[in-house]
Amino acid sequence: xxxxxxxxxxxxxxxLKLENRVSMAPTYLGMAAFGGGVTDVLVNxxxxxxxxxxxxxxxENAAVDPSGMGxxxxxxxxxxxxxxxxxxxxxxxxxxxxxAVQQINYAGRFAYHKEKWGASPAEIADVxxxxxxxxxxxxxxxxxxxxxxxxxxxxxxGVEIHGGTGYLLVQFLSPxxxxxxxxxxxxxxxxxxxxxxxxxxxxxxxxPDFPVGYRFLADEWLPDGLHAKETDVFAAELVxxxxxxxxxxxxxxxxxxxxxxxxxxxxxxxMVHFAGHIKKHIEGAAVITAGRIQSPEFAxxxxxxxxxxxxxxxxxxxxxxxxxxxxxxxxxxxxxICEPTCSFCMKRIMAGKPGYCIRWPRERRERFLAGTGESLxxxxx
Length: 381
Description:
Helix content is about 35%, strand content about 15%. The chain is α/β, with parallel strands linked by helices. It has a single domain, classed as Alpha-Beta Barrel (TIM Barrel).
């Protein structure tokens, strides 16, 4: 017995029945093939995550359209040609007993594609962002719907719409990036229109019983950006439209590298209060929180105090893929802690290489690198 009775108690996300309150938060690690296909390294990673003891594994964002890929190694879910690979991923997760959910996304102005669409035109350094016209808005909403149906066909237990990190849906929602003068800009009611169009299209595509979650941006962490007075309203509307859970986060690519954010993100549970706030303002949907939740004791306190219904582990679970089983007392070993000052995994990703944890045992690192065609000796030079 672990002593964490609340953390390891059952919970429901819509039709999903989960055995505990631990989830893997979607974490991009650059393990897909160039062009978005599934690799053995990716499948093996999610097999480990499925066997971690976490009840829910949310697979990293997959692009609903090639023009919306965040990188050349972003997974894709826009065509039947990717269906077999997606089935391998969903099966790998479920082999270990976890529930498998696939996140879907369109990166917008953060896409690596030469032509970048956003809510409004912008020039950032040498990047030119074009305003998405009405026809492209409608086509993109339809792409989300098609992708959600493919997720269902691939054997996943649910789909999560990525509405965080500053990607396209946030670009429409935020007053900082949406300066449109048509029905999709201006007042919050109009800025919500496209994200809600996507939600409605996805819900229609998968049916009323298939679980749909939303990666939810509670605060942009930027002056004059999205804050609680508007995201409260948006959260309630998402739930009214049939969203089963909100996976709450804060910050975007525009704020992630600011001094205040960099300082905060080294602290355990730095985003938990945002989830607690949202939870007080909605009824009928579960809330997942994240943000460097390092210790089982802290995770237990989050659940027992009602700040969230589940905790999401990202880099923490990468550092120790057995964190949930160790916390549950199934494995009597200390948890391998994700070092807050370490950015090794992110540096690998920024260099176009699959991410892994430098704190893994040597044997695990050697095995991982062998799968990528690299060697530990080369890495250490």
